[in-house]
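Lab notebook page, bench 4
Experiment: in silico fold of construct C2
Operator: M.H.
Input chain length: 434 residues
Purpose: comparison with the prior construct
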Amino acid sequence: MDICVVGTGYVGLVAGTCLADLGHMVTCVDRDEAKVALLKSGGVPIYEPGLDQLIKRNVREGRLHFTTDGPTAVAKSEVSYIAVGTPSADDGSADLSGVMAVAKMIGESLVKSCTVVIKSTVPVGTADKVRKILNETTEQAFDVVSNPEFLKEGAAIEDFLKPDRIVVGCREPGTEAIVRELYGPLLRTGKPILFMDNRSAELSKYAANAFLATKISFINELSLLCEAVGADVDSVRRGAGSDSRIGLRFFFPGVGYGGSCFPKDVKALMRTGEEAGFPLSIVDAVEQVNARQKQVLFNKVVRVFGADLSGKSFAVWGLSFKPQTDDMREAPSVVVIDALLAAGAKVVAYDPEAMEEAKHSLGERITYAESRMHALQGADALLLITEWNEFRNPDWEQVADTMPGRHIFDGRNIYDPAQLNSAGFTYHGIGRLT
């Protein structure tokens, strides 16, 4: 099929590249001339493992193209994807201005029948709004498909090419056949493609992300209870999560969730509930617990060093909101570092991929280390915030030789308290017995 994907952010670039890898002819559109020029030159504006090689292969084989000319790309396509961002507005709702602008451009550009696929994460009722715009701007036949993405940053390519399920909301009977052809190679494993109405498909994405966020906030709140009553959250996590009805995935305590999806989607779902006259009290609590959890590591530092951290230096390992990405959106590290700086501390940080992105939010207020060990020089304590693999098994003797301080604040519970204590460090985890 000839496909147009409007938006070369995280979702659009991954989707467009993977669709090309399935054999389709794909043109990715973005109004950012610098980004399109970068992509044409072989560069990639985001970090996602394996994406650069997949782009190079499909560009080389002539299936993947990049342009700023949306109307021309739409005019030649059988399927046009809307994959632009839907950031949170001031009231927490999803900002749909980008989606509506693209819908208008698509409608004005159509010269033949087309299937319009909304890949952006959008609230209930968005497909109806897009359909209205298309009705007002084109006389060509079309259907609007709600096809939310379920991609994990750091594993997006595998998630797209080996999905747990494909959710499709549409209205016209003939659209099902088009979508089946579109995703045909992905259906051979027997994983389900679920057809439903648009509104149910739109809500499915929010339901999935809000449930996962709930699971994280639940174990985070339990971690604080564990500290209060003298239990170990890792044991509690395993004891409860081994129940097949609960499971251990997304059931790890830490310093809170971040990223481009959970914070935004939780807020948007709350706003949808308010607009429908049905406030979502559980989802509201999830958001409150997460905001509190991002302060936990700093509060532990204050209990050790006091509220005035002037003259103290802290090493931070990990800045991105999770490993295998350079995404700093809603990253817990920013909250922790802001609090340290406000208390007068010096911060030296290292992250394998996210330091350039971190400068957008942290600027030059901190020192960016050349390596994980360089960050430890002169530090009174180490704060582990993002569990990159290279942080999991450091040489603790080398750490002791490099870092004057002996406090380890483990924001992801990846270290063995007994091992660290025997090595002469004082371990501070999240809800753990030490």
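Observations: The longest strand covers residues 2-6. The radius of gyration is 24 Å.
Next step: discuss at group meeting.
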